[in-house]
Amino acid sequence: MSSELKKIGGSKRFSAIAIHNDVVHLAGQVSQLIEGDITAQSKDVFTKVDNLLAEAGTSREKVFSVQIWLADMREYDEMNEVWDSWVENLNAAPTRVCVEARMAKPHYKIEVLVLAAL
Amino acid sequence: MSSELKKIGGSKRFSAIAIHNDVVHLAGQVSQLIEGDITAQSKDVFTKVDNLLAEAGTSREKVFSVQIWLADMREYDEMNEVWDSWVENLNAAPTRVCVEARMAKPHYKIEVLVLAAL
Amino acid sequence: MSSELKKIGGSKRFSAIAIHNDVVHLAGQVSQLIEGDITAQSKDVFTKVDNLLAEAGTSREKVFSVQIWLADMREYDEMNEVWDSWVENLNAAPTRVCVEARMAKPHYKIEVLVLAAL
After folding, report:
1. What does the pLDDT look like over A38-79, one tens digit per residue?
2. Cα separations (Å) of C62 from A29, A77, A108, C117?
3. Residues B18, B23, B28, CA angle at the centre, nearest 5°?
4. Gyration radius (Cα) of chain A, Å
5. CA–CA distance, C83 with C63 (Å, rounded to integer)
6. How many angstroms separate the CA of residue C77 from the nearest CA in chain A?
7. Residue A1 falls inside a structural domain
8. I need a surface site. Which of A74, B58, B62, B63 has the fewest CB within 10 A?
């Protein structure tokens, strides 16, 4: 295990990935599908997560904690359909918490914060 | 310290416990006491936390970070009464953050996310 | 790396700092500038963060994850001005997530949760 801190990608404002002590921290992931419904945005967000995990050198199986924010909790079931298919082939799903919150842009319907083992 | 990732309990949708690098991550804990007020639900939630910590091989003393969501911030003082008695015999309380949010079910008055050392 | 858990400062209710496995966890930081606008409160909050990081034996450069709650997302740009100047001299900014939430006191306009490497 390396205790060196590594930050990857993103912008001047925030890194996309931080790695420390074999833990991968992803920046909050949102979807730019402005017209996308919760299903489209959720799929888009989890695809971004998969891509960032790969870039960090890990994968969906190693995710152990996910925080989910929904702009509208009435879309919980639709988000869960996407989630369930995202986790269905894993040996075990991550821990998870999901609450409602307004996000940085009005078209964001979902934001996720992901922690994974390296 | 083991850098192996271990996930315990819960459901197909999410694990109840994830252990990595001697850190125990619990899934967001809520209360199914549908008629319970904030005091009853808070006690229920922290009892669940104690039980999961025990299952993970750790205890309340080793908790170092707690996020708390309240459905109604006007119930902050009542939640704190339960919290204060939960931490009163510890050598030191965890770090904490508490904000308001709507949760997955309308009867949820509190949800907590807990990190503990193993 | 020490896997010993250390908690520093704060109150009976919560510690200001917890250190475990070379990760520094700060309690949620808010501003007591009751009359302060988002700019004043954001500057105050990030100054507190700097001070706590120093007390923990680390610094802004080593921060790798920040959660930000705003009481009013319409103040996102003003918060970001303070943020951008807080991170501008870093080799790389932390990962970040920002959502809206009501906080424990009505005058809180911002709360932040900070993780840093030791």
Report:
1. 999 999 999 999 999 999 999 999 999 999 999 999 999 999
2. 22, 38, 29, 5
3. 50
4. 14
5. 13
6. 10
7. no
8. A74
| Chain centre to alpha carbon of residue C78 | 16
Q: Is C5 within the bounds of a domain?
A: no
The answer to whether the pTM exceeds 0.80 is: yes
Q: Which of A1, A20, A103 to mutate to test the interface with C (most CBs of C within 10 A)?
A: A20
CATH (domain of A34): 3.30.1330.40
Q: What total of structural domains would you count in chain A?
A: 1
Cα separation, C68 vs C101, whole angstroms: 10
Instruction: Assess if residue A102 is contained within a domain.
Output: yes
Q: Return d(Cα C67, Cα B79) in angstroms, integer.
A: 23
Number of other CB atoms surrounding residue C45 within 10 Å: 26
Amino acid in the structure at residue A115: L
Q: Of the candidates B117, B111, B113, B114, which has an alpha carbon nearest to the alpha carbon of residue B44?
A: B111
> What is the complex's ipTM, to 2 decimals?
0.96
Residue ranges in chain A assigned as alpha helix (H): 38-56, 76-87
Task: Tell whether A118 is covered by a domain.
Answer: no
Chain A residues with CB under 8 Å of a chain B CB are 1, 21-23, 62, 64-67, 73, 76, 80, 83-84, 87-88, 91-101, 115, 117
Instruction: Go through chain B and tell me how many residues it has.
Output: 118
